[in-house]
From TrEMBL:
This is NAD(P)-dependent dehydrogenase (Short-subunit alcohol dehydrogenase family). Coiled coil: none annotated. PANTHER family: 5-KETO-D-GLUCONATE 5-REDUCTASE, BLR5618 PROTEIN. Keywords: Oxidoreductase. InterPro entries: NAD(P)-bd_dom_sf, SDR_fam. Belongs to the short-chain dehydrogenases/reductases (SDR) family. The keyword Cell inner membrane does not apply.
Length: 253
């Protein structure tokens, strides 16, 4: 009697060229996933793949609908389905208050963080509805800023608050198709974006001072994403917050 062949799980990870996206993609590959790696810079995606036969490098700008459709079609052509989307691509945007930010900078931040996330989720849902068996899981990368903003981060903060609404809407509308959607809100994991806001050297606080804040390894954040991805279809993690111990989040301000 032949042994049943193990079903390969297929994931799409956006923003896979660096930071949390890179680490999540690598941990998924190590866990047995087939992973489509999406991002604007092909060379960095190839570094993430590191020659894995289960990685598919797909250069993609998530603000371009045609790029997003090509990404998901590439995953389906390669492996026949999409089981997980880690909706991770994002930018921090300019340091500015609402009276200072230019319309161009505002639109650019929303285009990546919000519209790009919507386009990827929409493509994932279409794929998950069309496949047999139906269903899948979307994990949106929110932020601690979905709960409490940093000073002078109006565009970024608005996109992350909006991400929560996107997450809840996808979860509700996907129920009849076996599609779940959850959001992970990460605070102060050690990635390049933390350098841009000075977390390690002195991040701007609500009272105008600057403070060195604790950080935690990106591998630990990625393990939490992998845990969410590996939940059984009968369960969904709708919202999860993970931060560096002692960072100024509870009591911020």
């Amino acid at each position: 009697m032949s042994t049943p062949q193990q079903v390969r799980r297929v994931a799409v990870v956006t923003g896979a060229g660096s930071g949390i996206g890179r680490e999540v993609a690598r941990q998924m590959l190590a866990d047995g996933y087939c992973v489509a790696l999406a991002g604007r810079r092909e060379a960095q995606l190839k570094e993430t793949a590191d020659g894995s036969p289960d990685a598919l490098v797909v250069p993609c700008d998530v603000t371009r609908p045609d790029d997003v459709e090509r990404l998901f079609e590439a995953a389906r052509q390669q492996w026949g389905r999409v089981d997980v989307l880690f909706n991770n691509a994002g930018v921090f945007g300019p340091a500015a208050g609402v009276d200072e930010i230019s319309l161009a900078d505002w639109n650019a931040t929303l285009a990546v963080n919000l519209t790009g996330s919507m386009l990827c989720a929409a493509a994932a849902v279409r794929a998950m509805k069309a496949q047999e068996p139906q269903g899948g899981r979307i994990i949106n990368n929110g932020s601690i800023s979905a709960h409490s903003p940093r000073p002078r981060t109006v565009a970024y903060t608005v996109t992350k608050h909006a991400m929560t609404g996107l997450t809840k809407s996808i979860e509700l509308d996907g129920r009849g198709y076996g599609i779940t959607c959850g959001q992970i809100d990460i605070g102060n994991t050690a990635t390049e974006i933390m350098d841009t806001i000075g977390v390690g050297s002195g991040a701007l606080q609500a009272d105008g001072s600057r403070k060195v804040e604790p950080m935690f390894p990106v591998a630990d954040a990625a393990r939490v994403v992998l845990m969410m991805a590996n939940m059984p279809a009968s369960a969904s993690v709708g919202s999860l917050v993970v931060t560096a111990a002692g960072m100024p989040f509870i009591g911020r301000g």
